[in-house]
């Protein structure tokens, strides 16, 4: 497996002398930490609103993009299609595995700085492919499952869930997912319609636009090859394997949630959670405690790059399938980006509510700036 280093992250210290939380934010495909991080902070004034927060913006290393004729671009992993992210999953495994290891390292470093067992002070945030790579890393958990801790929160914008179809099959659902928890947290869709940011839309748009034109060149007679198929049927007379098999039926079959998480851990080359892990109705055991991380997912209904339907599938998988605390919000008139007036405000409210993060109100911030100008 290639081990090219990841570029040094962009680190923005808190405005306050006090450092209470860290946000690790992942850019989308084709962008980088400087472009995405500086634009996000400038357009949202997150530093002013979250003065005790340290921001860490990592950059994905360059990988050759199969759909873009092997052109090297900054991407967390190589994915073949955004209309159907389940195509060519064999291309995704290496990047997801390496990126997850990289992100876990960033989290470990911030825990060291904030103090042991302070995972709840760390928020993982991602846009588009950064959301996809981030949520997959979160679901995989930690290398040592016995010492797992939930993060403070996960924030996803305009994203999707890698291997969603395979996870749905593991949870044995056709029309809907098997409900893992009765209580679901769903926010009502916003009705505000504002103009989308006229920024560079984090140059990821160019890569997606090129992908869309290249997709039209694929011929039906030459279907994409998918070597990585964890659901290939095993012949009845074949020799039993010791590998993880989510569909193996035996007396010690693991709970469906454990099977789903073990499938992700298998992809990320992490040790398996024991099949005899017991689940209770109102809580997960320590090995699955990372599933207690609250999640916010926002998506523009006019997103031309990643359909809101993919985001909603992710929401249903996390909420109904894995029983996580997930807030889902759709935004009318919004494309493949974010909007400060509603989405960012919703995210800040979510963080204040779920993470007990000190948030300065926009009005207070403007009032303070006005007073400074008078002086």
TrEMBL record:
Example of a GO MF term: carboxylic ester hydrolase activity
Biological process per Gene Ontology, one example term: antibiotic biosynthetic process
Biased composition range(s): Basic and acidic residues: 222-244
Listed name of the protein: Phospholipase/carboxylesterase/thioesterase domain-containing protein
Provenance organism: Penicillium egyptiacum
Residue segments, region Disordered: 181-253
Positions of transmembrane segments: none
An example Gene Ontology CC term for this record: cytoplasm
Limits of the Phospholipase/carboxylesterase/thioesterase domain: 16-169, 283-352
Short name of one Pfam family: Abhydrolase_2
Gene3D superfamilies xrefs: alpha/beta hydrolase
Acidic residues bias (residue ranges): 192-205
Family: Belongs to the AB hydrolase superfamily. AB hydrolase 2 family.
Source organism, top-level taxon: Eukaryota
């Amino acid at each position: 497996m290639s081990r090219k280093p990841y570029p040094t992250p962009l680190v923005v210290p808190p405005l306050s002398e006090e450092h209470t939380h860290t946000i690790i934010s992942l850019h989308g495909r084709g962008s980088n930490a400087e472009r995405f991080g500086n634009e996000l902070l400038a357009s949202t004034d997150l530093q002013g609103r979250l003065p005790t927060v340290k921001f860490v913006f990592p950059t994905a290393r360059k990988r050759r993009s199969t759909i873009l004729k092997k052109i090297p671009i900054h991407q967390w992993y190589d994915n073949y299609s955004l209309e159907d992210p389940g195509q060519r999953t064999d291309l995704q495994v290496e990047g997801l595995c390496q990126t997850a290891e990289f992100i876990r390292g960033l989290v470990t470093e911030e825990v060291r700085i904030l103090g042991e067992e302070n995972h709840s002070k760390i928020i993982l945030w991602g846009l588009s492919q950064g959301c996809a790579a981030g949520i997959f890393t979160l679901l995989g958990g930690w290398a040592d499952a016995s010492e797992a801790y939930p993060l403070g929160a996960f924030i996803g914008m305009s994203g999707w869930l890698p291997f969603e179809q395979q996870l749905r099959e593991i949870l044995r659902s056709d029309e809907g997912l098997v409900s893992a928890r009765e209580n679901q947290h769903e926010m009502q869709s916003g009705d505000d319609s504002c103009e989308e940011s006229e920024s560079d839309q984090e140059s990821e748009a160019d890569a997606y636009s090129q992908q869309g034109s290249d997709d039209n060149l694929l011929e039906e007679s030459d279907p994409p090859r998918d070597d990585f198929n964890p659901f290939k049927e095993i012949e009845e007379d074949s020799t039993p394997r010791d590998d993880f098999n989510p569909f193996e039926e035996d007396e010690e079959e693991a709970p469906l949630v454990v099977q789903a998480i073990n499938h992700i851990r298998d992809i990320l080359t992490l040790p398996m959670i024991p099949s005899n892990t017991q689940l209770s109705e109102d809580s997960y055991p320590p090995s699955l405690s990372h599933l207690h991380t609250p999640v916010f997912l926002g998506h523009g209904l006019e997103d031309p790059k990643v359909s809101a339907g993919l985001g909603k599938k992710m929401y249903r998988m996390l909420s109904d399938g894995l029983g996580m605390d997930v807030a889902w919000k759709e935004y009318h008139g919004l494309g493949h980006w974010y909007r400060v007036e509603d989405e960012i405000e919703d995210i800040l409210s979510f963080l204040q509510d779920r993470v007990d993060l000190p948030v300065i109100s926009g009005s207070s911030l403007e009032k303070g700036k006005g007073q400074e100008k008078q002086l």
